[in-house]
Give the backbone structure.
Amino acid sequence: MTIQFVLANTRLAAVPLTPEVRLHLADEAIELWERTESDQGGQMPPPFWAFAWAGGQALARHILDRPAIVAGRNVLDLAAGSGLVAIAAMRAGAAAATAVEIDALAVAAIGINAEANGVPVTALNKDILETDPDAEVVLAGDVFYSREMTRRMLAYLQRAAQQGKTVLVGDPGRAYLPTAHLTLLAEYQVPVPQTLEDTPVKRTTVWAVNP
């Protein structure tokens, strides 16, 4: 049911900043969210899985242009949404990629998108933020959009960095971006749907998380 819903409400298209990756994307967030809740028969999270968010696009571009970051290594994509970052990691030569989401529709979308790009990605429907990171590279795009999410996410990412893992995040200037704990690596101008953002192009940065 979830796979059919994703396919029925999206279209396969190239991602603006990473055209070598194609995703099943939607055009309108609010209408899709309403259809999601109607189809699932109750309250559902926003359909983050149906869009290529700026933070994920920048992080994916960064990895594709610098494949040594992930080549031959196990990668974890946190709050993966569409799975864009995990797919980019596999295209860049990662040994394996796991994309984690708490939304079952996102997990379905990740599987569909990975197949569309001809790469294997393990999609995990679970909240892992209280566990110990077990990947060599931890990646997160556009995750600092609320105070509580930032608190939990930063704690997890810093644990990973303290264990010697490579930890990178992509962010388009969200209100809770914890810059005091990050080191700036790169900046991108990312095309985004105006239905999601206040501008057609978002200045988006990629950071390393400090231990």
